[in-house]
Amino acid sequence: MPTEPELRAAICEVGRRLWQRNMVAAIDGNISARLADGSILCTPTGVSKGFMAPECLVRLTPDGRVIGGGRPSSEAMLHLACYCARRDVHAVVHAHPPYATAFAARGEALPVHYLTEMAVALGEVPCSPFARPGTTEVVEVALPLLASADAFLLRHHGPVTVGRDLQEAHHRMEWVEQGAQVAAIIAQLGGAEPFSPEQLAELARIRADQGLGVEPADYDPAGCLERIAAGWGRRADG
Length: 238
Ligand SMILES: [Zn+2]
Fold this sequence. Notes:
Blueprint: H1 4-20, E1 30-34, E2 40-42, E3 58-60, E4 66-68, H2 76-85, E5 91-94, H3 98-106, H4 116-121, H5 136-145, E6 151-154, E7 158-163, H6 166-188, H7 197-209, H8 224-231
Antiparallel strand pairs: 1-2, 1-5, 2-3, 3-4, 5-7, 6-7
Helix pairs in contact: 2-5, 3-6, 5-8
The structure holds zinc ion.
């Protein structure tokens, strides 16, 4: 497991890459990772993800109380929901890349049935109902999707990816946007034939062989909403 300084540096590097690849505009997006002691390092509110310094990051308890740094992103509640509901998740990335965000605006799950990489690496990318950003509604809509998805779209908002480490969550964000872009081009070209049910079943088997997908034992959303709603916005010492 990486040390806190290593994770701080890695979060800043992922922020730079998201910004360089046009996945976040202005102060959009947020990145977090879980430390060995269970606390969460996350990006602060109001900063460009392309130009962060390691010391600007905020440290939170699992229920959202600030224990170091300034004000966390209001979307950190969503990150806390991912860690609370999924014990295998150690990093979360949220961004607004244009193609995947367009699917989110349409309320459409991302089509993963055209490309082997998408079907194997992501499995499925569902879209949530609408939730007001920065409220516990985001936690409410995210929790059910985490039962089976490592990547999902927030309706009218943008994609979220989780991973066993920061690199995996970041790679999934890149795959989501790549898949959304290819799906948009396929639509412009007049469509493409999707996988057959047999091909999809075979790809699902390859995915399982690679140890991908959510283990039922890793998912437990019970009490997460209440826990985050109670802790959010409080100082650990207050
Ligand atoms: Zn956002």
